[in-house]
Amino acid sequence: MAPRTDFPPVRACLFDMDGLLLDTEDIYTLCVNELLRKHKKEKCPLPWSIKAQLQGRPGPAALDIFHNWADLPITREQYKEEYYALQAQKFQFTTALPGVEELLQKLGSTRYWDLKGDATTTQDDAAATNGATQKPAQKPHRVHIALATSSHEANFRMKTNHLTELFSVFETHRRVLGDDKRIPEGRGKPLPDIYLIALKTINDSLPEGEKPITPEECLVFEDSIPGVEAGRRAGMRVVWCPHPMLKQEVDKNGDVKLVLAGLLNQAGIEQKKAQAGLANGTTEADTEKSGEADNKKPGEVDDGWADYLPSLIDFPYEKYGIKIPNEAVDQEPSMKETAKIDEGEVLQAVQTEVVEN
């Protein structure tokens, strides 16, 4: 089919975290391989064919898949205890992946267009966008951002306590974590709920007079296959930026276009598990309640709604209708502020026994 090209400018960017913003996917693999060597050497190292199924999912669902494959000679409780102890040691060393800091900084700087208080495009605006040629019909606008991660709060804290400046761009009420009570039981990625909730957090806190943002005005950033499907099912555009080894695994079967269209049917797999009584916390009745939307195709091959990027370095803002002010505006007094953090919030470590991936 001919790809769509008449998209409206992106007004909101919604971010996954693990493997997209942070290098945690390699840490997860390191922890798993350490336990495989200890308890079942013949299964080590964790193959990417299995790793790909774990990425992006809520912790309990990922653990189900892993244990069904690994068949370890220890209880799940012992595995979780050892696994989380390793995570507690290693997550304190997480770092941002290439291009992430610049991308978040530049998206955050788009609040300049709000602070100007003038939505018209002028010569000053042209100067503020690094001299880029302006289309008369398109006015610079703020791009709102939110976080949508399957990591539960305790795990999120362990991964980000030392990266508070990086994550300050995500206002606290615009962070949707895996154990957020607004996500119905059994409705994690690849289902769309987390991204629709993230969009709602933005729309519920827009400045007075700004019209609500629609799903097609959103751009989802994902590294996992279930995450891409979740974004597509939410009716949003998607950037897929996978781990190089995941991309290599997908290339083996020539499935890149299917990933971008959300057509590997990860949601269908979850529904079949629910019907068989195998999905964590989900029943067949829950599946029936989820509505017809989950049964619809998320997208079509080559429909133009999703793109593959090897990294987030030199992100193509103009392609998505995003205007970035030049660096000089960051020196203006009104631009010195960082993203809001809820009053009295303290970012601190949480005991590892309550950690969930």
Give the assembly state of these chains.
single chain
Strand content: 5-15%
Quote the average pLDDT: 85
Uncertain ranges: 119-126, 131-136, 278-291, 338-357
Distance between the termini: 38 Å
Shape: globular
Order of strands in the sheet with the most strands? 3-2-1-4-5-6
For the secondary structure, the number of strands is 6
Rg over C-alpha atoms, rounded to the nearest angstrom: 21 Å
Structural class by sheet pairing and helices: alpha/beta
The description of the largest β-sheet is:
6 strands, parallel
Helix content: 25-40%
Q: Can you lay out the helices and strands and say which pair or pack?
A:
Layout: E1 12-15, H1 24-39, H2 48-54, H3 59-70, H4 76-90, H5 100-109, H6 112-116, H7 123-128, E2 144-148, H8 153-160, H9 164-167, E3 175-176, H10 193-203, E4 218-222, H11 225-233, E5 237-240, H12 244-252, H13 256-261, H14 266-275, H15 284-289, E6 306-308
Parallel strand pairs: 1-2, 1-4, 2-3, 4-5, 5-6
Features:
single chain, 357 residues, alpha/beta, 6-stranded parallel β-sheet, 15 helices, 6 strands, 6% strand
Structural overview:
- With 357 residues, the protein is an alpha/beta fold.
- It has helices spanning 24-39, 48-54, 59-70, 76-90, 100-109, 112-116, 123-128, 153-160, 164-167, 193-203, 225-233, 244-252, 256-261, 266-275, 284-289; strands at 12-15, 144-148, 175-176, 218-222, 237-240, 306-308.
- The protein has a six-stranded parallel sheet with strand order 3-2-1-4-5-6.
- Helix 11 (225-233) links the parallel strand 4 (218-222) and strand 5 (237-240).
- Mean pLDDT is 85; it is low at 119-126, 131-136, 278-291 and 338-357.
